[in-house]
Amino acid sequence: MAGVLSSLRYLLADVIGDDDAATPLLPEGSPDAIAPVVSEGIHLLIDYQGPSYAQLYVDRLRRFVGRAGVDDAMFGEIARLMANRMSYEDPIRIAQLKLGEADAAPDDVRQFRIDELVGALPTAVADPILGVLDYLGWVHKPVSIRFSKASRWGIRRLKIEASLRRWRLFSVRYGDERAWVERWLHMIDRALVKQPAAAPQIVQTATMVQGYGDPYRLGMADWHLIIDGLAKPTFDSALALPDLAGAVAEARAAACPDSRQVALKRKIDEIRARVPSEAQPALADARTGP
């Protein structure tokens, strides 16, 4: 709930006017050795969305300052990977980056799914459009977008696309990303309590969710399958995995680009079968949850 309220507060600050909040300070008590990583994350997110959004990053990091089981290396990885995830690639971000490139930079053609493009719009606008696209069966239709500075029109279009940053925190995609980051952090929290040795591996699962288009969607689906099939049941004491870190690493190695997730599901079933337990729920019944 605290994360949701923070997000709403920073969203409101950005919508009311230009985000002229002060640059956030590093979390008090954070490791000195990791200060450059956190500072880089703060400045990345200021460029991405604004100081208030960077403050959300600092607030999320604060929960791990001085936490038992979190050494400098783990804190640094949480900081680095969270900054990367909070600066997720959407058409707005690609336009921002393109505008910052040298004038001689070549055109950049990216392929998105149509629901991804619509998902960058405010939810109130996007939801009706997504409903129509779903009815037509076009939700997953690929669309190629050219990002170019080769002409005045190209530069003007990039500026228009980059200006949508102001509304990003209202978007469908932002809601999905906010929920994912909070769940990832929650799973790290639970690992530190239930199986501290698995916490670094849970942190690294963030690398499964990257980019845009089908690779992004497949990575997100694989992440939820591993969490729901292995990590959450272990934390809930429904699955007696003595080495969750090894199990998660083994499952990640089996993941491959497959919308049906055949190999990954087979591997998770195999891992679970090694630990007979009356409390084990069927993988098919696993659901996404806290």
Summed up:
This protein has helices spanning 2-16, 35-48, 51-62, 72-86, 91-99, 114-119, 123-136, 152-163, 172-194, 199-204, 213-235, 244-254, 262-273, and strands at residues 108-113, 142-147. With 290 residues, the protein is mostly helical. Helix 1 packs antiparallel against helix 3 and helix 2 runs antiparallel to helix 3.
Structure description:
This protein is mainly α and 290 residues long. It is 59% helix and 4% strand. A two-stranded antiparallel ribbon has the order 1-2. α2 (35-48) runs parallel beside α4 and α12 runs antiparallel to α13 (262-273). It is globular, with a radius of gyration of 20 Å.
Q: What is the fold's blueprint, element by element?
A:
Blueprint: H1 2-16, H2 35-48, H3 51-62, H4 72-86, H5 91-99, E1 108-113, H6 114-119, H7 123-136, E2 142-147, H8 152-163, H9 172-194, H10 199-204, H11 213-235, H12 244-254, H13 262-273
Antiparallel strand pairs: 1-2
Helix pairs in contact: 1-3, 2-3, 2-4, 5-8, 9-11, 11-12, 11-13, 12-13
Distance between the termini: 12 Å
Q: Which sheet architecture does the biggest sheet show? A: 2 strands, antiparallel
Please give the radius of gyration in angstroms.
Answer: 20 Å
Strand percentage lies at under 5%
> Mean pLDDT, as a whole number?
89
Number of helices: 13
Strand tally:
2
What class do helices, strands and sheet pairing give?
mainly alpha
Number of domains: 3
Residue share in helix: 55-70%
| Coarse shape | globular
With strands numbered from the N-terminus, the spatial order across the biggest sheet is 1-2
Which regions contain 5 or more consecutive residues with pLDDT less than 50?
283-289
Helix and strand string, N-terminal first?
HHHHHEHHEHHHHHH
